[in-house]
Specification:
single chain; alpha/beta; Rossmann fold; 8-stranded mixed beta sheet; 11 helices; 33% helix; globular
Length: 306
């Protein structure tokens, strides 16, 4: 990864003001993460942010520009935002060095939501916002965990734009280009800050990559909550032509709403780029809409302590 002079010299804070680290015990693992809460009111609901492969929870609290952070934006708009390091990342990496399968991660994530709700106000319930491999986990969890309110995912589809065996042969700089797209999509300091977010992809997680298309076909008919999928303008990992998207949405037969959108001026890692704020605003607006449609008041009515 080539760093600009600005990237090499800019200081990188650990996290944004108002964001604090958190540990959650769930299904025998201790998950690390970041938490932001509305400063003066109970939360409307709780957004659980789930990062992609080779990243960490700080993906949703980008430090290159104040406008990047989903955590601070969500808290300002009345949501609690909990960004978790997925099992096999962060604190739990030492406990599960080979990582977990998607099914196993889903069980841990469900347990983590229960553990969080036992100690914090969650408002009307949980909304999932996920990226890339985290989108796979969120879709798996939505299919297998009742009571979730809605799901917003970016950088995940149902058919790869490159075969898994081709990915193994990609030169490093070509894989980097698929993850990031044009450099101008990101503010100065992005790649220095990203060095603190990057983590090894656990072996068991990597081994499941080729299985996802078949897994999606099994999971899709079981997802029964509102769903929004976003593909970046420069998304290169997934097939997302109109015919591909029609095939994808046709499989989500139980979801009451399926919305597919494109994010202009963005690469695969949308939440670290200049498009992060408009993408996050659209995701939070989708959650507001989902709460209204479900008969919940997203305007911040007091929620009972959970």
């Amino acid at each position: 990864m080539s760093l600009s002079r600005t990237d090499r010299t800019a200081p990188v804070p650990a996290h944004s003001a108002g964001v604090r680290p958190i540990l959650l015990d769930a299904a025998g693992l201790t998950l690390s993460g970041l938490l932001a809460q509305p400063p003066d009111t109970p939360p409307r609901a709780t957004v659980v942010a789930v990062h992609g492969g080779g990243m960490r929870a700080g993906y949703f609290d980008g430090q290159a520009d104040a406008d990047l952070s989903l955590l601070t934006l969500g808290a300002r708009l009345g949501y609690t935002v909990l960004a978790l390091d997925r099992p096999g990342y962060g604190h739990s990496a030492a406990q599960a060095p080979a990582g977990l399968t998607l099914d196993e991660q889903s069980a841990v994530l469900s347990a983590a939501l229960e553990a969080f709700a036992a100690r914090h106000r969650v408002g009307r319930g949980f909304l999932l916002l996920a990226h890339s491999y985290g989108g796979k986990l969120a879709l798996t969890t939505a299919a297998r965990t009742p009571g979730l309110l809605a799901l917003d995912a970016s950088g995940v589809g149902h058919r790869y734009g490159i075969r898994p065996d081709e990915r193994r042969r990609l030169r490093r700089h070509l894989e980097w280009e698929r993850n990031w797209g044009p450099l101008g999509l990101y503010p100065p300091g992005t790649f220095r800050a990203a060095e603190h977010l990057i983590a090894p992809i656990p072996a068991r997680e990597a081994a499941e990559v080729p299985l996802w298309p078949a897994m999606f076909d099994e999971l899709a008919p079981r997802i029964d909550i509102p769903l929004r999928l976003t593909f970046a303008e420069h998304e290169a990992w997934w097939q997302h032509e109109e015919a591909d998207l029609a095939d994808l949405t046709s499989r989500l037969t139980r979801a009451p709403l399926v919305r597919v959108e494109r994010q202009p001026g963005a690469g695969h890692n949308i939440s670290l780029g200049r498009a992060a704020r408009p993408y996050h605003l659209r995701a939070l607006a989708f959650f507001d809409e989902a709460l209204r449609t479900a008969g919940h008041d997203p305007a911040g009515t007091p929620a009972p302590a959970c």
